[in-house]
Amino acid sequence: MAKLSKETKQRLQTVFQAGQFVIRWGFIPTVLYLGFARGGDPGMPEPNILRCAVSVGPSLCVSVHLCVCLSVFGLAI
């Protein structure tokens, strides 16, 4: 295995941390955007934010709140 300098290791660590941040906070918004942009199946009603919020209800709010709290305290699920 190649030896890496301390500076290179720190840069790689920063890159990996940035990648983790992008994946953690960007995945669900990307999926939601694609779902709204492409729409539903033919014959299905158009998706909208209100219908989505009512259908998932409190369970999603609790899940999002739990994930945010855990990430603030540096814990993983």
Helix content percent band: over 70%
Q: Name the shape in a single word.
A: rod-shaped
The helix-and-strand class reads mainly alpha
Number of domains: 2
Beta content = under 5%
Low-confidence stretches: none
Helix count equals: 2
| Strand/helix succession | HH
Gyration radius (Cα, Å) is: 19 Å
Number of strand segments = 0
Report, as a whole number of angstroms, the end-to-end distance: 32 Å
Q: Average pLDDT value?
A: 74
Sheet of most strands: none
What can you tell me about this protein's structure?
- This protein has two domains: 1-38; 45-77.
- With 77 residues, it is an all-alpha fold.
- The protein has two helices and no strands.
- The model has no long low-confidence stretch (mean pLDDT 74).
- Helix content is 74%, strand content 0%.
Question: Which labels suit this protein?
Answer:
single chain, 77 residues, mainly alpha, rod-shaped, transmembrane helix, protein transport, Mitochondrial import receptor subunit TOM7 homolog, mitochondrion outer membrane, Tom7
Q: In summary, what is this structure?
A:
This protein has 77 residues and is mostly helical. Helices cover 74% and strands 0% of the residues. It is rod-shaped.
Topology:
Blueprint: H1 6-38, H2 49-72
